[in-house]
Write a structure and sequence with these properties.
2 domains; 35% helix; TIM Barrel; 8-stranded parallel beta sheet; 5-stranded antiparallel beta sheet; globular; 17 strands; homodimer; Urease, subunit C, domain 1
Chain lengths: 394, 394
């Protein structure tokens, strides 16, 4: 198969020769289209890297069900945890079904790799993990799904959870998660002891939800960086949200960034609406890997979201006050290359020998694609069209 | 014509009898569809009020032109004013064309009324006004366009602008605008003197861009409220952005809200990405009319935006940390009824005798429509379909 007249991110127009699902050659397009039977002419459409969602909750979404008004009694993380327990108890449709609805929607929008957090607590046990493992298996040819065993109800304050997290890894989860060691669990050392012990024993990475803001949040980031170095997990630890970095002065943020960079701790942001966004450009300048994710999509936490990572890049750029092209390119990098590096996806990138995975859109540049979020003309995986005009065709 | 099986915002299903472009009757849908030749069956789609954009810049947009990277040298309002002057000087396509591109796009997304600010300064004179007056005339059967003569380069610091603003009103602008009386113009009293004098003499309303934050911005809001009462313009003055309200403590915001409510000064927000959002729910509770607008759309100021006011309601809700249905309904009200009241659109609302103006979407409730921003199935004006599935058909 030949993908003809594709414009790449660097502005060059190419014909892409695809053999066995991989890129066999990137030919200059001014030579004309070679005589060949199977030609897909993109007529100058922009060919993007496949999108990567660094933070999704496949087990939480209620996508495809009738609208359920948010029921949290207050505005704190603890209120939302409680509200979600009620929604979960009242649920009659399995998470496999709603999570599958979401996977279909995100693949149709061009996402071919994702990291999903999955709730593990002493009420649920490993039930949600089993549902998401089924989703992963069901969609294995379409999308790669990395799973974080996520202690949504805390570890210290929810006895038995540490053992469940460990068991989750044994059953197929890829990373161990954490949650506000101070704000929810009330014990920084005990929380980090628990999750880093599992990470070391199982030799897996860590991804910690940290909503705690201000100097308290910064102290936790510094402790996480320190623990990462001490356990030899450099490059395998991420902190999701890290609102604290957006709520302190620039000097403090820069100093914390240096510690995170030194420890190889990555920072995930979804471009929060009601909380401060970490200073993405500053973090990047200081060597911190920043990556993007959807976070909650139409679930007990949030009514918003749709899993479109090009729209997420827009939201990251909008919230970070990005306006220049190099800034919009950073937002795009957060939902493509940077997220792929954090997730450890080695088979990634538009280059000879790489996978024939692409997203085609009508846009003049990556910056324009982020700002305008055009409909996905084509999503191509392994040289096969899997979605057309935003609709899954497999 | 009969619009059959429409679900209204209150959840009731109705047949809507349309005669002469107006709503002749709202019939209960359980009676079955009356035998009639011209029936448009919505099959349970949600019928929304037409959307209202309370703040757009039809003359600034570059929509439809090749992507132009942002060129501002810095991150201040003054840097962006300077960058825009350069873009304007290099422009070869008339504002009529790009503004018309935007009008077509916004009508296709369900907006039937808008307030456009139009740059007036001593370099431009009334050139942009003339372009937007042409746009208004061209689209007069499709959309109502209210025009604010907007001193983008200041009034005091840009000698001659006050006379130009006055002339703009004489030539057809509907309101006089203002811009950061302190931050840009450097003279609160002189700025307010200039624009309120014109408003009084011409008997028109006022809409002031206020980016200045903190206590300084609050002092300007208080001065605007005071001046509004003194000039008898209660209910005819709006402040756009008012970031200051989002950057002070709750007591200060509440006290300022009381003064604004007492003076009948409305507050416009576009759900800013990089600046604080005013506390929308608090303002509303204190009796302030809060309304929404797009602000910049793909112009020298911002690469973002598309004029979709349902998406704007989402952005307002997202930034305001809204999650509950009543909050999402407030965001919707900001881009429908509240904006219509501020713009003085009397012929508005889904009721017997009212205009047959509607937007049909697939959603179970207004809250869901805001969160999900579904494609516009139909946009109907005066009983006629003007857009279908997001595409203009007139």
């Amino acid at each position: 198969m030949l993908i003809a007249n594709a414009v790449l991110a660097d502005g060059t127009k190419r014909h892409i020769d695809v053999k066995g699902g991989r890129i066999a050659a990137l030919l200059p397009a001014d030579a004309g289209v070679p005589a060949q039977t199977d030609v897909l002419d993109l007529a100058g459409a922009l060919l993007l890297l496949p999108l990567v969602d660094g933070h999704i909750h496949l087990d939480k979404t209620l996508l495809g069900l009738p609208w359920l008004p948010n029921q949290a009694a207050g505005n704190k993380v603890a209120d939302r945890i409680e509200a979600e327990r009620n929604v979960r108890a009242a649920r009659t449709v399995p998470e496999f079904e709603t999570g599958s609805n979401l996977v279909r929607q995100v693949v149709a929008s061009g996402t071919l790799h994702m990291r999903s957090h999955v709730d593990v607590d002493n009420q649920l046990g490993l039930r949600n993990l089993h549902e998401v493992l089924k989703i992963r298996e069901h969609f294995r040819d379409l999308v790669t799904i990395e799973i974080v065993a996520f202690p949504q109800s805390g570890v210290v304050r929810s006895p038995g959870t540490a053992d469940l997290l460990d068991a989750a890894i044994a059953e197929g989860a890829d990373l161990v998660g954490g949650l506000d060691p101070v704000g929810i669990d009330g014990d920084l050392k005990a929380h980090l002891d628990a999750i880093f012990t599992i990470a070391e024993r199982r030799s897996v990475g860590v991804d910690i939800h940290l909503h705690d803001g201000g100097e308290g949040g910064i102290a936790q980031l510094m402790a996480i960086a320190e623990r990462t170095v001490a356990t030899g997990l450099k490059g395998r630890v991420a902190v999701s949200h890290a609102f604290a970095l957006g709520s302190v002065d620039t000097d403090t943020a820069a100093r914390t960034a240096d510690a995170l960079a030194n420890a190889g701790v990555a920072i995930m942001s979804h471009g929060p609406g009601g909380a401060p966004i970490p200073p993405l450009a500053l973090l990047r300048e200081h060597g911190v890997e920043v990556f993007g994710g959807s976070d909650n999509i139409r679930d007990a936490w949030s009514p918003f979201g749709n899993g479109d990572m090009l729209e997420r890049a827009m939201m990251l750029g909008y919230r970070a006050n990005f306006r220049h092209d190099h800034e919009l390119q950073l937002a795009f990098e957060m939902v493509t290359g940077a997220a792929a590096r954090v997730l450890g996806i080695e088979d990634y990138g538009i280059a000879v020998g790489g996978p024939a995975d692409f997203v085609a859109v009508e846009a003049g540049s990556v910056a324009e694609a982020v700002a305008a979020r055009p409909r996905r003309k084509l999503v191509i995986k392994g040289g096969k069209i899997v979605a057309r005009d935003g609709v899954l065709v497999v």
